[in-house]
Amino acid sequence: MSPIPKLGSPIPSPMSGLQKLPQCTRCCNGIVGTIVKARDKLYHPECFTCDDCSVNLKQRGYFFIEESLYCETHAMARVQPPEGYDVVAVYPNSKVELV
């Protein structure tokens, strides 16, 4: 006969020893294996895609606009710079010359 837990104490779960899988931001399923992390969000490699055209963004530039993920083409289509300015993509570790 197992002991009866005291009132207010947590009930032991048969799954309490298992770790929860990280969850993919796009499909909401657990991730086993390779994880893509961008802006503290996690993705399956196959789910790391542009919200518009579904091109895979691994090994490419990617852009977050209002919490959505885009390829360079679709990000530039969404961004309207102020009058007289152009949209320019700047990649990490690239050399930028200010004019």
TrEMBL record:
GO terms for cellular component: adherens junction; filamentous actin; stress fiber; Z disc. PROSITE patterns: LIM_DOMAIN_1, LIM_DOMAIN_2. Keywords: Cytoplasm, Cytoskeleton, LIM domain, Metal-binding, Zinc. Pfam families: LIM. It is found in: Cytoplasm, Cytoskeleton. Residues 22-81 form the LIM zinc-binding domain. Gene3D superfamilies: Cysteine Rich Protein (2.10.110.10). Its main location: cytoplasm. Transmembrane segments: none annotated. The keyword Metal-binding applies. One of its GO terms (molecular function) is metal ion binding. It comes from the Eukaryota. GO terms for biological process: actin cytoskeleton organization; heart development; muscle structure development. This is LIM zinc-binding domain-containing protein. The lineage of its organism: Eukaryota, Metazoa, Chordata, Craniata, Vertebrata.
